[in-house]
Amino acid sequence: MARSGRARVRSKAATRVTHRTWAIATIVVVAIIVIAAVAYYYVGPGHRGVQTASQSPIVGKAQVGQTAPEFEVSTTAGLFDLATVAQPVFLEVFATWCPHCQRETVVVDKLYNKYRSRVAFVAVSGSNTAMDGTSASSQLDVLDWARRFNVQYPVAYDELLNVANLYLQGGFPTFALIGKDKKVAYLNSGEVSFGELDAAVAKLLR
Q: What value, to the nearest 5°, has the Cα angle with vertex 82 and ends 77 and 86?
């Protein structure tokens, strides 16, 4: 009887160890699955790291080092004609629905206030979708966007997306810096830091 009792105790202990082992193994497997899912989300085919730009199918023909494609738009500050502008140019192609563009207005406002006397700033709409993400873009939509996000620099509504077709780099916002020689000196897209854009503008003015 004593041996039988000891055997039952050992059996129960072994069962508890087995259950504990299975529980630990299950937790480990679940943790691995979660980590793999998170990693796939950020580095998988649809996400190359944390996204800092809203995707666009348009890739314009503008290239760094090449002559900047000419354009003309009517802005909140009057007519902007690249061919007649004597100063270097800071161009942004944006979409009113783009959260990255909305956040970047603070950066561009700061740059505008610093360089407005030496650089011609212009931001041009590059999407036919409005801020609500469903309706069609319009002049009123662009003006509402500028008001809502306290945009201080000149903005333009480009109904035919001519500027986007020339300069957009596949993502909103796209930034282009154009020198006095009318050559593209800088191209980038996404939420670019003030430091990077400030250094690029300063280099353009040397």
A: 90
Cβ distance 178 to 186 under 8 Å? no
Mean per-residue pLDDT, 127-156:
97
Instruction: Report helix, strand or coil for 173.
Output: coil
CA-nearest of 124, 144, 21 to 69 is 124
pLDDT single digits (tens) 78-134? 999 999 999 999 999 999 999 999 999 999 999 999 999 999 999 999 999 999 999
Diameter of the chain by CA atoms? 106
Is the pLDDT score of 54 beyond 70? Answer: no
Question: Taking the domains of the chain in order of start, what are their residue ranges?
Answer: 1-50, 54-204
Q: At what angle do helices 194-204 and 99-115 cross, to 10 degrees?
A: 40
Domain covering 54-204 assigned CATH 3.40.50.720 in the classification: no
Sign of CA dihedral 113, 147, 77, 75: positive
Tokens of 191: 């939420």
Cβ atoms within 10 Å of 193's Cβ, excluding its own: 10
Partners of 184 in the beta sheet?
178
